[in-house]
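$ ./design --mode recover --in tokens.txt
reading tokens...
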């Protein structure tokens, strides 16, 4: 079975500030999105990466990516779940319903290939699929509307979801369609699968698989990429 990857990249990154969507901000000689795609393109058994773009995306064609990368694009939607569903529809005719599809955030350029491979190994015989995640280590607080603490929450068995999230093509498409029909807000693919009655497997990933959300995250991502490059060079030689 081929391995397919969907990268929803239709967001505008409002929390980042500025006029350039955060996936197109410069990072270590490329854009954030290009760094992410170059990393994902190294996956063994990869069929194709499908990037869901804003219909009026002004930046995609300025990307400098190797011509041999197995890339396609499709129109994204208003919400992340809409973009993923559009991409799944675009995969029809290429992907089998039983193939695995990875959905990965455009702004997680530091994901480790070893973590993705461990995820795929962990779910190989799982009836549903799973996702990379990190156990919560900090104390959790719930606030009211003005920012005052109203409760301290237990953190036992609480995880922070990350990506990629991996599910069967047909099952994920059906779960997202059901969520749309039920008008239930979906913030990640695992939530759609949960709504459909499944129990995705949590697979511990590395803490350096950060999501670039705020300006200070760009500097941190650059440091992480440099450290990972040194790590790889040391291991190779």
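writing sequence...
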């Amino acid at each position: 079975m081929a391995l397919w990857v969907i990268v929803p990249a239709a967001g505008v990154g409002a929390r980042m500030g500025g006029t350039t969507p955060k996936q197109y901000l410069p990072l270590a000689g490329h854009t954030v999105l290009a760094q992410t795609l170059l990393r994902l393109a190294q996956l063994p058994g990869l069929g194709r990466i499908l990037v869901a773009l804003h219909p009026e995306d002004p930046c995609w064609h300025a990307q400098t990516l190797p011509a041999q990368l197995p890339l396609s694009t499709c129109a994204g939607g208003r919400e992340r779940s809409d973009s993923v569903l559009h991409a799944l529809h675009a995969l029809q005719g290429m992907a089998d319903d039983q193939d695995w599809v990875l959905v990965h955030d455009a702004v997680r350029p530091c994901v480790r290939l070893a973590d993705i491979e461990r995820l795929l190994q962990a779910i190989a015989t799982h009836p549903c699929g799973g996702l990379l995640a990190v156990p919560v280590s900090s104390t959790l607080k719930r606030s009211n509307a003005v920012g005052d603490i109203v409760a301290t929450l237990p953190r036992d068995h609480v995880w922070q979801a990350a990506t990629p999230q991996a599910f069967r093509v047909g099952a994920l498409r059906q779960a997202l369609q059901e969520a749309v029909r039920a008008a239930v807000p979906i913030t990640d693919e695992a939530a759609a699968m949960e709504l459909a009655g499944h129990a995705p497997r949590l697979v511990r990933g590395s803490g350096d698989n950060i999501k670039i959300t705020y300006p200070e995250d760009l500097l941190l991502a650059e440091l992480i990429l440099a450290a990972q490059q040194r790590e790889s060079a040391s291991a190779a030689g």
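exit 0
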